[in-house]
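Researcher: I'd like a structural prediction for the single chain below. Treat it as a standalone chain; there are no partners to consider.
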Amino acid sequence: MVGMSEIKTSLPRGIADAYVDDLIALDPVTGTYLGVQESNSRLPDLSPAGQEAVAELQRATLARLDEAERRRGADSDIERRCARLLRERLTAELAVHEAAEGLRAVGNMATPAHSVREVFTVTPQQTDEDWAAIAERLRAVPAAYAGYRASLELGLERGLLAAPRPTATFVGQLTQWSGAGEGRGWFEEFASAGPESLRAELDEAARTATAAVVELRDWMREVYAPAVQGAPDAVGRERYARWARYFNGTDLDLDEAYAYGWSEYHRLLGEMRKEAEKILPGAATPWVALAHLFEHGKHIEGVDEVRDWLQGLMDEAMEKLDGTHFELAEPVRRVESRIAPPGGAAAPYYTPPSEDFSRPGRTWLPTMGQTRFPVYDLVSTWYHEGVPGHHLQLAQWAYVAGDLSRYQATIGGVSANAEGWALYAERLMDELGFLTDPEHRLGYLDAQMMRAARVIVDIGMHLELEIPGDSPFHPGERWTPELAQEFFGTHSSRQADFVESELTRYLTIPGQAVGYKLGERAWLLGREKARERRGDTFDLKAWHMAALSQGSLGLDDLVDELARL
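Model: Treating it as a single chain, here is the predicted structure.
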């Protein structure tokens, strides 16, 4: 006779959670982000065999899911949502694997090489035991990078090449990580914070890791970079559609999305002109007014000072929103502002809390060597990265994981869902009156324009589409990376190094950057449908908490599920 516990573990949520356990065994980086202590001394196999092992697990899980969905109880709302997410995610991930994209994963962010370095920043560092695990993980860096190199070598053999520009940027990052003869490498600097009782062991392990960085850098520079010269920057419609499904959880109508990006461009440009007039009357463009703010607007002096200021901004937002527009549990109320380690991309980012909240959610600001920080472009960005953006969503997922599944609350996340919520959070703060200061509001609109520009240039550049005739920028021409960088630079207040980093990012991870605006559109449409359905009984606070407590969904399902709340 089959027991109830066996039935529960054979339903979709049980299948999904078993997948998380099995994946952690193959990918200890994921384990560390989830707070699994046993993962903290290991790194994954990044070789072709390691990639195939993950794919085999995904295929086996899908087969188990087929059987689970036929069981009694699998049609409940909570099981149904989990099953739809698990099937969509694993199918999208397998499509990327089977197209051998992992054999040309080179760029300025989100590559296996970056994940190896970045996991150290979230590995526990409180005790001697923690640092002993770090020493072991440092000793694992050479094997991890050797596996990554083996994957790229196989890609070269098969003619699966990364684009030249991301490759050159990555070589420069590896040089920075190595120390480039100017001092200790990144791993050695990181290990220097460890206890004196483990000093010799940590220093030796860190030098081993740095040597692996140098070896990878030399091979990338001397073998890989020359081999990819002449490779196309654009991925084309077929590859782009595959990546768009991976990052957005839906099969996008790419031409409709491109047109939507332009419609948002025109709408936002009108709003920006009105706000710019309040700051610098007669300014030729909104970006002239933003350049004025960069030089003469409110700013923070000092790296430590800006970190503390951003912490205060999040604390203030938490205090004012909790109980009015959200109902937050105590663990969710904790979030930390951090400075990002050097040698990465220029964009700020967020890392979620561990499952038990022993490591809180954290926002990260890359300083790019700066010590002076204008605030106009930081306020809405920290509403996006921190509160009520990424932190409230991802920390709430962790808090309600027991009511969902571990998978839905952690690794099943869909980029466009999370980025769409975070951009919705910026707009929400504008709706609630938190951005009445003209500097802050123009900065918010500039950030919104950046996300509209991302839709335009990411799709336009990779599909080599024509620029519309009503565009003030090169109408009738076809997009190239050079035109994309010029467009982005003239329609953003960001500095040249940020613009350069952004364009390289789009060449590195095609289809991801469109998810901000398209995800925001889905969240707004879902809210409007729920408001229409409930009429005068619609409660925004209750809707927010229900929406944040349903776990991840792809854009295919998000609007429908939000409308039901």
